[in-house]
Amino acid sequence: MIKTELPSVDIPSYVYCLIPYIHAKLKAEGSASAISLFSNLDLAGLPAYVRGASLDSARVDFHIKSIFGFDSFTDIMKLELHEHQYDSFESGLASINRSFAEGKPVILSGSTYHLPYFSDYHNQWFIDNFGYTINTTMYIVGNHWFSVYGIDESGVRIYDPIPSKFAGTIPMEDFRHAWGGNSLITVLANKKDIEKCKPYGQLDVRVGHIFSQSELNDLFRRTAYTIASLYLKGDSFKLGEERCWFGLAALSAFISDLEQLEGDKRHVQRIEGILGSTKVNRFQIGELLHDMRQLDLIPQAILDAYLPLHKKWETAYNAFVINMARNKDDMIDRTIVLMKEALDMEKHLFTMLYRYLDGTPLLPRTAGE
Questions:
Q1: Is the pTM of this model over 0.70?
Q2: First to last CA, the chain
């Protein structure tokens, strides 16, 4: 067992589950690091709305922003991620025990169905809805990442902050099944893309550069300026049979789609999912702005412009959920009003941010700029 205090679990639940472990690795290597920056280096704070011919396919998509050609956060941060798997639990256990003996925690992949601190733990809902989560309209299959800091007679010491905020010990038998991943759960054998869930997986993170705080501050500025620029530009692209909108065009397109429904409530479940994802999207840029203010990289006025927007999106989502439960006839019309108010607030925020950072370089592109 590695004798060290586990990192903080006070991390927003919407952050990609791998990011806290990369953050911990960078800090352990002596590099400056910030969780809010990593998501936004991949443009998580840029609104993106995707739809085919009808609202049945509408969604907020966090995975299509590579269309802009910016380097990924792992490339920008000079990180090498190497994923591999072991042939058996026993061979994997022998290997990770050697890492513990060297004082090194490991990052493993597995199934939340066998992690006792998850609501998924032996929960039939997980099996019946495999590939989906609450408020998610996209089918996404994969194992969950968690970090292990050692094994002894008391059990397996786990650090897993997202979304369960867990840092503690679980029984060895639960760990054995969890590390086996989703593909070893018999009733999931015929699920689409189940082969993506490799058993006994491990991720090695190699740090290629130790960032100074000054270098990280530069990335904060470039990230915020890039997102503000793209937001105000409001691009729209055709992707196969679908169209995607970004920035201010994303919310404008969604509002337009809702107006055309004329109160038709057949799509309320999908609307709820889109509102939930949109709220998360705005919270991502909020985390970045909070950290930038703490580092004195932006004035308080910009953060003050964000705070009521944060509240507006919480209100829009929560009100819709309540009105949906009450089957209110005007729930969509009320949502349209709130979103139009949010759109005006967003334009004001991103205009302030753009003007303050004007002249800052955009994030790097592989092809160069």
A1: yes
A2: 48
